[in-house]
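Dear colleague,

Thank you for sharing your sequence with our group. We've completed the structure prediction you requested, and as agreed, I am returning the results in plain text so they can be pasted directly into your records. Please verify that the sequence below matches your submission; if there's any discrepancy, let me know and we will rerun it promptly.
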Amino acid sequence: MPTQEKELQVGDRIIIHVLEWGKNERESKGEMSGYIGHISDPSCDVRAAIEEFELKYAFPEKVVLEAHSFGKTVPSKEISQREDLRYLECVTIDPETAKDYDDALSLTLDEQGNYHLGVHIADVTYYVKPGSFLDKEARERCNSTYFPGTVLPMLPHELSSHLCSLMPNVNRLAVSVLIKFDQNGNLSDYRITRSVIKSRKRFSYGEAKAVLDGEKKSKYASHLLLMVDLCHRLKKKRYERGSIEFAFPDISIRVDEKGAPVKIERVEYDITHQLVEEFMLKANELIATHLSNQGKPLTYRVHEQPNPENIKEFAARCRIFGFQLPDEPTGEQLQNLFDQARGTPYGQFIATAFVRSMRLATYSAQNVGHFGLGLEHYTHFTSPIRRYIDLIVHRVLFNHLTNAENLDQVALQCSEKERLSARAEGAVILLKKLRLLKEAQNTHPHKQYEAVVTQIKPFGCIFEVSEFLLEGFFHLSQLDNDYYIFDEENCGLIGNRTGTRFFAGDKICVTVESINLINQEVKWRLGSLESSNQKPKRRRR
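Please find the predicted structure tokens below.
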């Protein structure tokens, strides 16, 4: 669409086709090739992210036709060739809005006190064959990308939300990992089989938690309680080997049918999330160890040791917040830190700071272990509907890997696409947060928000608004009419005239002065100080 055919205004989001990149003082030249919508229209947020991060949206017709060719039910001939596990009481536990149910769980306890856990994973490889249109498209996408209210699936909805999804009360093809644990949670036996299952119940995390808390009745209550029991035993084993868990709340943004955010929900990392994660971790570890012992090529999920200097810097920051941590902490000391920080105003920031001090977890055909989990062998196997790398592991497991697959190349591509999706998701989430904040400002222009000072710089302070998990910044000139001295030793700012003090860890109140959706910037104004001015003395490093 040529520019002259549409009169543009400030805030319009458009697509530019670059004709010539500028150099030195020469300007770049381009033409408008598409119109997305105005920044005031929230329904265009996802479309804009798709264009900005070059994500794939619609599926080619040949891919959709191939997905349709499987029909809507599992073939009876295929069922007869698999181990029939439909007698097991399988349940799924997922987010309330999820439709792609990758995994189902079953658990029984025998007379000797042994646990028999079944981790049943959607058998996507039955439908997505190497070299097929579906396979080529999934390989290009590498993963599903999740936005508030919608998803860009790796596979068409005919498969991802229906035929592959482990929906309740229908036959589904699965890869079942059947694991036996003794009374202490030690793995004593296992086997892997291609199966047919029938999930009995679809739980959301919230519903499962309500059953466990006795707020809601369910005939599967004892089933869930047994899962909690095994979860605690596996967590104990994991802590003993030095694995780290920092279970802090996250937020979920609800949007209406037009993409406008309506509220932010705080998602607690409660026992229902923990038990699902614990069982998935065990299945992933078992599959990686099993395939490694067989000498098969594999795409590992690897996490290298962190840079010692980064950990030292992180430890110093924790001490500023009043938590004691040595420069070279053990896994147990780190776990104690996160346990202590949970529930404090600083917990979320400490968890974020720790993640930033670590190296990124990636995929690799060379195994270097997983530092964060304290494991020698680890892979991703449990989410083949939404991750291509898991699909590859399934093929390795059943010798369906073709010679054309270059595992190094697949691992690199999936790692890159994972990071790209994370950036796209983060961009949309940030914009939705700002829209909510702007709406709140219009309704209550003087509303104050609680924030925690997370970093002090010579030129100002960085803080996090707790309600939105949103980072903000005050320049020295915005604090008040005073001259501030930077206290480098204690990471603080001290007013020369008023004695007003700002230190990392202080709780402050802030109000919104202005919001610019185009630049995605918020200008904050300092509200009343809750505690920073009343402290008689400061923690010292």
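Summary note from our side: The chain is about 30% helix and 25% strand.

Kind regards,
the structure core
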